[in-house]
Each structure stands twice: as C-alpha cells, then as structure tokens.
Amino acid sequence: MTYSKTGAKPAEYAAKATHHHIINDPRVQSLVSKLYIPPAASVADIAELATPFEPVKTTVTDVFAIDGGYTESPLKKGFPASTLHFFQFGAVHFTLDALRKLEISRHPDPDDMARLKNIDRVKFPLPTLNTKRNDCESLTDSVRLTLHEFLSAEKLGESMSLMDTLGWFLFRQYKGAKRPAGEDQYELTTRPHGEGGFVFRESEMKSDFSFEGPHGEGPLYLIDALRLHERIDEQTGAAGICGYVAGVVEHLILLHLIRNLMRFDGGMRRSLLLMDRPTGFFGNTSRLIMPMLDLMRWLFGTTGIFMAGLEKSGAFVEHAQQIQKVMPASSFLVLGNDYIYKYVTPPSANTTRPYGETSYYGHKVIFKTGGGHMYVVSLPVAQLKAEPTVQDVPCLADVLTHVEQLKCDMYENALLPIALANKLVSLSAVPSSKILESFAKASIA
Of 225, 296, 358, 421, which has the fewest CB atoms closer than 10 Å, so is most exposed? Predict the structure, then answer.
C-alpha cells in the first residue's frame, strides 16, 4: 500500500514495473492455471423455453407499492469523521378504477400523484460513525435504541405499531388459536452483550417490546432478532447495516399492510402488494425467511395473497436485457437451478438445493409483456424448489396480468406504483443530502 499525500511532501505512487514479479512467479502461474471460467451459454434457445402468457381476470381492485431510501449526512469532516444516515420510507395506494380514469400510467407527474391516496411517510435518523446518543454508552446501543423507539412509535395511522407487527410476525400471532406449541418464541443466536444466544418468549415480552437480559447485562429488544448488532463496529461504524435496515423496514411496512388487510373481509383478495426489491432477506437478517415462508404458507392456505417484488438491477436484470430480443412477446420464464446456473451465475457447491434458499422466500420470473417491456419479478411461494414449475408459483398469472397493466414508460421497464413510491421517498444527493446535512449539524449544535 502506498503512502497518501497528507502534508507538503509528495505522495508515494505505485511502482510501474514490479508486476513482472507476479507474472513470473511459478506459484502464481500454477494457481491462475487452475481457475475455471464457465463459458457463456447461447441464448438462442430461450424462445423454446418461454411459456406463452395470456392476461386473466382477477379480483384485484387496489394496489399498494412500498419503497424506501437513505442518505449519508456528514456531521464532522476530516479525522475523525462523524456521520448520520437519514432514512425515509413510504407507500402509495390507489384503485385500478382511479388509474383507468386518470390515465396516468404513461408519464406520472406531481399533479397526478396528488390525486392518489398517499400513506404517511416513515422517516428517522440513525447514528452510524463516531457518534452516539447522550443516553447510550456506545454506538451499538445507540443504533439498537433508535430502531427500537422508532418501530415502537410508528403506527402508519393505525392502532398498532410496526414493532407490534414484528412481534405478530415472529411469534406467528396471525394463526390465533391454531398456532402450534413452540411458535410463541423466537431464537436469537447472538446477544449484543455477552456470549451465547437468547430465546425470545412472547409471554416474557414487556409492554415496551423488551426482555430482561441475562446476567444483568441490560435489556434486550425485539429488534435484536434482526442481528444488526453483529455488523456494528465501534471504530469503523454502522454504515454497513443501512441496506439491511432498509430491507427490514420495507418488509415491516408490507407486513403491517398485510396484517391490517386481513381484518377486512376479502381485503387480501382485492389487494396487490408491490415492493421495489426481491422477495428475500439478506446478510444478518436472512433468518427471517423462515417465519416469512411460514406466513406465506398460511396466507396461501387461508386468505390468499397477490404480491411481487420488482428487481431493477443486478445479474438477473442484466440477463433479462440480454435475452430481450430473442424472448417472444407475451411470455415468461420461471427460473430454476438449471436455467440460473446455465445462463445467469456459475453453479454453487450444491446444485440440488433451491437457488438462494438461505435468502429468498420466492422464485424469480422473467416476464416480457406484449409491448416488449422486460421485468424480473419475484413472487412468494409456499415452498422453495430447485426446479419450480408454473404450478409452484401461486397467483402467477394474476400478478403478471397487473404487472403488464401497470407499466410506466417514464423509465426503462418501470411500473407506475414503484415509480410513484420512489418519487415520494427517494433522497437525492443534491439537494436532499446537503439540506439534511445542514439540518443535522444545526440540530446537534
């Protein structure tokens, strides 16, 4: 590693000719020769693999779309730097009748958005580097308490908070009297302080969604089930958890909507729920896929659910763009292991297990509409399979019917609800981050 320029002396730059030591080293040559790069598969046969699609009549009358974003705001520049992250989430709701009457599916603008019912925005700040709350001893505890208080207070206009919904989800409260023994608890694999794990028992949870920690180490919060504390370092900060926080909060808003829609007769059958992300939990939050799969099985067996996650970037989106010209219009591909490992990503160590089984609670579908738009749609399932068929993805035709109906020409392969939700909550680098930076500095000063 070279020296950087910090004073009057010049910076040290990398040498221009030392690469020959690497190239001529026999061990390096031997290791490189053992590497395997899978050959690119021809996409000429995609047309034969695609399944023709015909729109169907559905029971959906209302659409909900959820999105979120965050931005970094420096509190102190130089060394040591201090930062704060601002998060904002929200959802849009409109009826399909309103969409048809307003005819805004092509180019939404602020006037169009004003005619739609907007669910309250959800926002909060999170300390992420060289800063902590006055009532906490560390950055880790500052993050934990901030998330705990935010989720406990935020209700989205309902009588129940997002934290209450997290308990409803983790303890399978939606099953009511049919909940099997043992599902009123959730195992925490690591504690924020101390060695070993902890078992959250619903009967031991206090009214503020906390638990008595063992050995007098302080309270444990229900949000510790997310295991975010494992990724926080007092020196390098907590910026690495921001993506996980965004994913979890968006899912909690989704769960909050599901919980409230279940209170209305036929509410779930009339609603389409859309997220601007895949159907999965990643990193430290990945253990949440087990209760999520359990919830999906319950919903498919009772009220039903129309839900999808839309992907806008990544390997699957790039592959969809690659096959756009050869894939027939009005067709779709349900992606299984054989397809994914041949066309999208190199095979994993165990190709007999469902792709992404430790992170996803749904299967991916590439859909080309009659108008040529390409979408990568993730749909929840009751059980992950290595080679899913059309029958293994419930409500596939219903969801794709509305994906085609809700197309938006304002952006490349965009959906109207997702575009509107993004406009409501996205935080731009300029001027949003600059304004929030000034606000944070003034508030702390």
Answer: 358
